[in-house]
Amino acid sequence: MITIKRYIKEFLTFAKWEQRGIILLSAVFVALMIFTISYNPKQKVLVTPDISRKIKDFERQVMLSEKKSRIGSAEMGWSNFSSYSNSRNNFTPFKFDPNTATLEEYQALGFSLKQSQSLLNYRAKGGRFRKPEDFKRSFVVSGEHYKRLAAYIVIQNSTKDTVPWHVYQPVVFQLVDLNDADTTSLKTLKGIGSAIAKRIVDYRRRLGGFARNEQLLEVYGIDSSKYSLLQNQLKRPSKWTKICINTADVETLKRHPYISPYEARNIVYFRTKRGSIRNLQQLVSDRIISKSTSEKLGEYVDYSN
């Protein structure tokens, strides 16, 4: 064992001159590594006169192609503008009624197809020109165009209206009773669609009927702004169903949206222990229901046995 240790020690022990050699070699090795990493010579591309000439020819062709493209676009734009300008200016005005003029007549008066269609769409939606100045206010009629046509505008004030009668018919809302209306009737109310109409009917069934129109605010999708639109379209709700609080079982009580399952069980337990309920204040005092629940529930309670 001693011989092996001695051999290893002698093998790993260096003389001073060997140590200096190792240090020198290590320094050279590190320097070579640093030089290799940091040295990154740029490769020079040798461009012959022939290649240089081809590059210049290519650049010249690209520039010429771009120039031709710009000139062609400009000429096309000018051509389109000229044709549009001619169609706007080269027409002979004639007398017309803007409330009855046809698509072809509008085009003959210098309006484009799109402008003519816009004027017809305005009339189709119930729009009417009652005086020449109204025609000027149309967004498709420029000031210059109107000046050329102003003297030729003739609006007939006939008793026969060219716009469908229902457009000018005053809208009269039929007051709706929330407890009698079906989904079809509810959808006639301003701001009520199919989904909300169905929610109103479902909530009415759970309530037993609306006691006040304000209860619509409890329906999902109806906020104060929507209710402000509805309230003038509603009449006072008709009769609604009340709960016989002294005889109703737990299942009946908890189906009502104002009574939770916990409160329903406690009401029945209270009846069993204390007898008939005479008023909701009894339940509030014994913490069977909350005060807010009693305020909402008051209009739905029947105390008969």
Order of helices and strands: HHHHHHHHHHHEHHHHE
Distance between the termini: 111 Å
Tally the helices: 15
Helix content: 40-55%
Structural class: mainly alpha
Number of strands: 2
Radius of gyration: 46 Å
Rough outline = flat
- Main sheet: strands, sense, barrel: 2 strands, parallel
Q: Provide the residue-averaged pLDDT.
A: 80
- Spatial strand sequence of the major β-sheet: 1-2
Share of residues in strands: under 5%
| Poorly predicted parts | 158-163, 165-171
What does this structure look like?
With 305 residues, this protein is mainly α. The protein has 15 helices and two strands. Strands 1-2 form a two-stranded parallel ribbon. The protein is flat and about 115 Å long. It starts with a helix and ends with a strand.
What's this entry about, in short?
With 305 residues, the chain is mostly helical.
Task: Spell out the key features of this protein.
mainly alpha, 2 strands
